Amino acid sequence: MALLITDECINCDVCEPECPNGAISMGPQYYRIEAARCTECVGHFSEPQCQVVCPVDCIPFDPQNRETVAQLEEKYRNLIAAGIAKRPL
Q1: CATH number for the domain including 77?
Q2: Could you count the other beta carbons within 10 Å of the beta carbon of residue 83?
Q3: What pTM was estimated for this model as a whole?
């Protein structure tokens, strides 16, 4: 499942550069996550990096975008093939 940023976001700017898939961008009032690009950091890290760095804990899993690990891995492979996601070191 993708993640989402709630309205508790304080626009601290720490999550956006941590996303290896470029899924986080500024929305009209606070940051947002593009579900089509969010792999919960599968393929890159063992846990979602935006959640790790968020100082206000406002990035829960999005119940509207449930995905299995296999689906997240496939999305990751597609993002890498399209040149959208950063390749892990």
Answers
A1: 3.30.70.20
A2: 8
A3: 0.91
